[in-house]
Design brief:
Layout: H1 13-16, H2 28-37, H3 74-84, H4 89-108
Helix pairs in contact: 3-4
């Protein structure tokens, strides 16, 4: 992806080079365009929650925010909360990191 290139014509050059596209520092509109132009999954590795701090680069989150997630045991809190909501162990594992490794493997062409 080239900074400042309007519209992302065709597919992103990063896809051809096995480079993961991280949209963490991109606004909503640019993120949507990059996802549409990408033939590989895009990443959001470190983003803020718009509901907590309405900044243009923070992402809108469809799940409610909890201040409890600022604690060091937040992964356990997330897993417990998802389990109480009826999510399967497989889904919970994906949320806690397994999906990230899958996407990264797909982008980098790993088996």
């Amino acid at each position: 992806m080239v900074h400042g290139s309007p519209g992302f014509p065709g597919k992103l050059r990063a896809n051809d080079r096995g480079i993961a596209v991280d949209l963490s520092h991109r606004g909503q509109r640019t993120s949507a365009k990059a996802i549409e132009a990408s033939s590989k999954p895009a990443l959001l590795t470190h983003v803020g929650c718009y509901a907590v701090h309405p900044h243009p680069r923070n992402k809108e989150d469809r799940a409610p925010y909890s201040p409890d997630l600022d604690r060091t045991d937040r992964l356990e809190i997330i897993a417990t909360g998802l389990s109480k909501l009826g999510y399967s162990s497989d889904v919970i594992e994906k949320v806690l990191g397994k999906n990230f490794y899958r996407v990264l493997g797909e982008v980098l062409g790993a088996e």
